[in-house]
Amino acid sequence: MLTHDAAQEWIARWDRQQEGYLPDREERFTVLIDAVEALGRPDPLVIDLGCGPGSLSARLVERLPRATVVSVDADPLLLGLGRAAYPHLTFRSLDLREPGWTASLGLDRPADAAVSTTALHWISEPELRTMYAELATVLRQGGVLLNGDHLDSDDDTPAIARLERAVHDRESERAFAAGQPEDWRAWWDAIAADPDLAELNTARTTAGAGHHGSESHLLSQHGEALRKAGFAEVGTLWQRGNNRLLCAVR
Question: What is the dihedral of CA 155, 158, 162, 165, to 10 degrees?
Fold first, then answer.
């Protein structure tokens, strides 16, 4: 039985191991939520795309308690942790790569924002175009997509792209050299060894929820897909190396 306290402990470990690869993770969260707040609604309706265990969703509701956040992911284990740790959040088990996912969100009005952090680069470019086009249908006019991820500069600026990656790599190396307690693989190995998570682990394996490489890591791939989906403006709100917060306005 996965308890509330155990789930919170696992998510705290998740957050710590993520910070090894994203030392500026909390700053990026803060900037993203600042942008949602700047939309001007005290009660925004927000879709969290690829929410994982709900780290971003929980921070968003903590800052904006009147917000409604619908958190979407396809990984049964991460969703199980999120549901146990954050019973006040709304989680939906949906695969963003499958057309029609928006019909199961249960929205009662167009969303003000869609947010994501370190998730959408796992989606292939053709699926990304389809997903963004469908997302546009449930965002209000003037609503935004805020995507925090590692997105490399375009192929026509290879030197800049290399330096962006180098800035991020040096930052991550310093984090691990300073005693980062756990990396991605170690966290998943520990999850697999916990008998209380066996059922969720089996569901995850059955669903094929693991990631197998970055599919859309270029800034241009996301920018072009968003413009074709009808977003009027696309740009970077915040950046450190290739770690950036991409914003698209509907």
Answer: -20
4-249 folds as Rossmann fold (3.40.50)
Q: How far is 230 from 236, CA to CA, in rounded Å?
A: 18
* Residue-by-residue pLDDT tens, the chain, 250 positions: 899 999 999 999 999 999 988 999 999 999 999 999 999 999 999 999 999 999 999 999 999 999 999 999 999 999 999 999 999 999 999 999 999 999 999 999 999 999 999 999 999 999 999 999 999 999 999 999 999 999 999 878 899 999 999 999 998 888 888 877 788 999 999 999 999 999 999 999 888 777 666 789 999 999 999 999 999 999 999 999 999 999 999 9
Q: Model pTM?
A: 0.95
Write the CB contacts of 83 (distance below 8 Å, at least 6 apart in sequence): 89, 91
Phi, psi dihedrals of residue 124, rounded to the nearest 5°:
-65, 160
Distance CA 187, CA 158 (A): 33
Backbone φ, ψ for residue 191 (5° rounding): -60, -45
